[in-house]
Automatic annotation (TrEMBL):
<dbReference type="GO" id="GO:0003700">
    <property type="term" value="F:DNA-binding transcription factor activity"/>
</dbReference>
<dbReference type="InterPro" id="IPR036390">
    <property type="entry name" value="WH_DNA-bd_sf"/>
</dbReference>
<dbReference type="GO" id="GO:0006950">
    <property type="term" value="P:response to stress"/>
</dbReference>
<dbReference type="InterPro" id="IPR036388">
    <property type="entry name" value="WH-like_DNA-bd_sf"/>
</dbReference>
<dbReference type="InterPro" id="IPR000835">
    <property type="entry name" value="HTH_MarR-typ"/>
</dbReference>
<protein>
    <submittedName>
        <fullName>MarR family protein</fullName>
    </submittedName>
</protein>
<dbReference type="Pfam" id="PF12802">
    <property type="entry name" value="MarR_2"/>
</dbReference>
<feature type="domain" description="HTH marR-type">
    <location>
        <begin position="1"/>
        <end position="122"/>
    </location>
</feature>
<dbReference type="InterPro" id="IPR039422">
    <property type="entry name" value="MarR/SlyA-like"/>
</dbReference>
Length: 122
């Protein structure tokens, strides 16, 4: 029984490492298209998450969970995207202490252009 648990743990580790390698390869393949679209990978992930949440938008904590970004990093990216008019902030009508982030038409257009490039790669 103990040997089975050790083998299962080893296989889980091998599988996890394989997924990490595959993810790194995918990021390496798609990053040039994202950069050509004028975005960092992190900004692209944030815009993609917001596009999926449209029209309700996402709170910063929801967006952080969705992208895996830390709050300070995410704030920096959202500030940059807002300065480029790709996202906008609104006060949450359910909780006026919170802010909801929305993707704008400009942000949707940027994601669409990058998605076209990514589709062409497949």
């Amino acid at each position: 029984m103990c040997a089975d648990m050790v083998e299962a743990t080893r296989q889980t580790s091998v599988d996890a490492l394989q997924r990490i390698r595959e993810t790194r390869e995918l990021v390496a393949r798609i990053s040039p298209a994202i950069r050509r679209g004028g975005l960092s990978l992190e900004a692209f992930l944030a815009l993609s998450a917001l596009q999926g949440a449209s029209p309700r938008g996402l709170s910063m904590s929801e967006l952080a969970k969705s992208t895996g970004a830390t709050p300070p990093t995410l704030t920096r990216h959202i500030d940059t995207l807002a300065a480029r008019s790709m996202v906008y902030r609104e006060i949450d009508v359910r909780d006026r202490r919170s802010t909801v982030i929305h993707i704008s038409k400009i942000g949707r257009a940027a994601i669409s252009r990058i998605d076209e490039q990514l589709d062409a790669m497949v």
